[in-house]
């Protein structure tokens, strides 16, 4: 049974509860997704990702960044050696790629709606974590159809 069919079979209170549960799950993973995406971007742009650069780009203290990076290391997403830069593990790279892809679909969709670049960039940063796979696929299909028809 597809997600949409499952949702229709639920009572209104069960649908609401499922939506809130999904939002809570998205909140749990969004910090990790943001950090691994940034670390991947820093490596691509600068050849390395240093903790100081991560803290600066996330607008947090180095202590906060170090705490989150330590969590990412425990989760097997990031690794480093003493006095060396941060590196993504295979799992971290996969998470970063998935997050970056979701971000791009949402951003392109918002731009197609006529949303200004800076606003689309800021909004897509939050939406990418919370949009369902079904909605994301619909956005991607819409964009693909739009490009095919030359709109």
Give short descriptive properties of this protein.
single chain, 151 residues, mainly alpha, two-stranded antiparallel sheet, 7 helices, globular
Describe the structure.
It is a single chain. The chain has 151 residues and is mainly alpha-helical. The protein is built from 7 helices and 2 strands; from the N terminus they run H-H-H-H-E-E-H-H-H. Strands 1-2 form a two-stranded antiparallel ribbon. Helix 2 packs across helix 3 (51-58), helix 2 packs across helix 5 (90-112) and helix 3 crosses helix 4. The radius of gyration is 18 Å and the shape is globular.
Mean pLDDT: 88
Q: Rg, please?
A: 18 Å
Count of individual beta strands: 2
Helicity range of the residues? over 70%
Largest sheet composition: 2 strands, antiparallel
Q: Given the structure, what is the number of helices?
A: 7
Q: Which term fits the overall shape?
A: globular
Structural class: mainly alpha
SSE order and pairing:
Elements lengths: L2 H7 L2 H35 L4 H8 L3 H13 L3 E3 L5 E3 L1 H23 L4 H14 L2 H16 L3
Antiparallel strand pairs: 1-2
Helix pairs in contact: 2-3, 2-5, 3-4, 5-6, 5-7
């Amino acid at each position: 049974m597809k997600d949409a069919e499952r949702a229709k079979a639920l009572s209104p209170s069960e649908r609401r509860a499922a939506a809130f549960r999904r939002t809570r799950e998205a909140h749990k993973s969004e910090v990790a997704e943001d950090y691994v995406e940034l670390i991947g971007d820093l490596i691509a742009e600068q050849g390395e990702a240093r903790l100081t650069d991560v803290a600066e780009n996330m607008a947090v203290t180095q202590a906060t960044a170090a705490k989150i990076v330590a969590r990412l290391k425990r989760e097997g997403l990031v690794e480093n050696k003493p006095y060396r830069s941060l590196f993504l593990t295979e799992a971290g790279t996969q998470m970063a790629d998935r997050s970056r892809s979701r971000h791009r679909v949402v951003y392109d969709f918002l731009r197609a709606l006529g949303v200004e670049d800076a606003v689309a960039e800021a909004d897509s940063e939050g939406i990418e974590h919370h949009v369902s796979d079904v909605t994301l696929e619909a956005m991607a299909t819409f964009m693909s159809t739009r490009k095919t028809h030359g709109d």
